[in-house]
Design goal:
With 394 residues, this protein is of the alpha/beta class. 65% of the residues lie in helices and 8% in strands. It is elongated, with a radius of gyration of 38 Å.
Length: 394
């Protein structure tokens, strides 16, 4: 008869007995030593003994020293090491010396490695609740610090512009051409889509109300004046804040992380002149052109609604738009767009230069650049509108 071959995993016959469960047995001695016998197979998936048994036995015997006997240990993995680490922590807490001499060599080495470097006390951050005055003071301090950094950055930009007017600014001319292409031609598709839809929406909303009075023809006035004076520049500015301003922040933030800006300063090259100035000039030059393009697409969107839905004659609609839109509205829109270009570029470059050095800093800088740019656009729109009304350009 042939014998049953042993398995490769255990070396036992397939019909052999399963491995014994892990167990601990404590034998207190008169000399204050608690001897713990470890037996069985200590592996994942096995039913482990209760650790509180050993703590209770150590407390009852008033042991000052703990030793182990692992002669009956048949197998182990990280489960045994976790048990021993818990025992070591308990012994340290209760003033008991744990002797690992009776453990297998591999267990001793892993245990020594695990307990060699103690955990830092400040490694785990604890949440603290601060009072109202502390939070207000902290936010106020951060606000003034941010304001000081912003004013310093604006001053450096103004100084770079003065050097540019004197012909002493140092930046590469092909960088300016590249950013003009990025801020201009490459932005036309998204500006076209948004401006056309805004013109359609303005015309449709105006038509719903004007049709109640039989004054549908004034849809041309509404769309033309709104797009040329405000909406064309505002929509182009918001688009560029989310597109180009965020790109500027990401570019400069990546350079900040890679210490490229520090390298420029070490070489005696002003980062504001070399990096910020061409970006600001490109966006300030392209924003008025994008605003004019947005105006035309918005008027086209209003024309589609007026001719297609309100049955207004094409020539009549264009003539009404021509008489409604004044030249002063056009120049106010161009000035507003140029201001938006400067604000969006400054917001993107400022947040990029303020970027931290950690992996998440670029994302925070990009988000902050978009938010700062849009808020600056809204505030500038309000200021320009009120100023125009005060000087009689309303």
């Amino acid at each position: 008869m042939s014998k049953t071959p042993p398995t490769a995993a255990t070396g036992l016959p397939e019909s052999g007995h399963s491995a014994p469960d892990p167990a601990i047995t404590g034998r207190p001695a008169d000399d204050g030593v608690l001897r713990v016998q470890i037996s069985g197979t200590w592996k994942m998936g096995r039913r482990l003994p209760d650790f509180s048994q050993m703590e209770k036995l150590a407390g009852e015997t008033a042991a000052r020293r703990l030793t182990f006997d692992a002669r009956d240990l048949t197998g182990w993995d990280s489960v045994l090491l976790a048990f021993l680490l818990k025992a070591d922590e308990s012994c340290r807490r209760n003033g008991i010396h744990m002797d690992s001499g009776g453990l297998p060599g591999g267990v001793r080495r892993l245990l020594a490695l695990a307990t060699a470097v103690p955990a830092k006390k400040d490694a785990r951050q604890e949440s603290r609740r601060y009072g109202l005055f502390y939070r207000v003071g902290d936010k106020t301090s951060l606000f003034f610090q941010s304001a000081r950094e912003t004013l310093t950055f604006i001053g450096e930009v103004c100084a770079a512009l003065m050097r540019l007017l004197r012909g002493r600014a140092r930046f590469r001319s092909h960088d300016l051409g590249f950013f003009i292409l990025q801020c201009g031609a490459q932005a036309l598709p998204i500006v076209s889509l948004i401006s056309l839809l805004v013109g359609l929406i303005l015309a449709f909303v105006g038509a719903v109300q004007l049709s109640l009075f039989g004054a549908q023809i004034y849809v041309a006035d509404l769309v033309g004046i709104a797009m040329v004076r405000v909406m064309g520049a505002v929509m182009a500015g918001i688009i560029m804040a989310g597109r180009t301003g965020a790109a500027f922040a990401a570019q400069l933030g990546s350079m900040q992380i890679n210490e490229e800006i520090d390298a420029l300063q070490t070489l005696g090259i002003s980062p504001v002149e070399y990096l910020v100035l061409p970006r600001m000039l490109a966006l300030a030059l392209m924003m008025p052109l994008l605003a004019v393009y947005a105006d035309l697409l918005g008027i086209l969107g209003g024309l589609v609604v007026g001719v297609g839905m309100l049955d207004i004659n094409l020539t009549t609609y264009l003539d009404q738009t021509h008489h409604a839109v004044r030249l002063v509205d056009f120049w106010v829109g161009l000035f507003t767009a140029a201001v938006f270009g400067v604000l969006v570029s400054l917001a993107g470059c400022l947040r990029g230069m303020q970027c931290g050095r950690d992996s998440a800093a670029v994302g925070r800088a990009t988000t902050s650049a978009v938010v700062t740019g849009i808020v600056a656009i809204i505030i500038a729109t309000a200021v320009i509108t009120i100023s125009c009304n005060m000087i009689g350009l309303g």
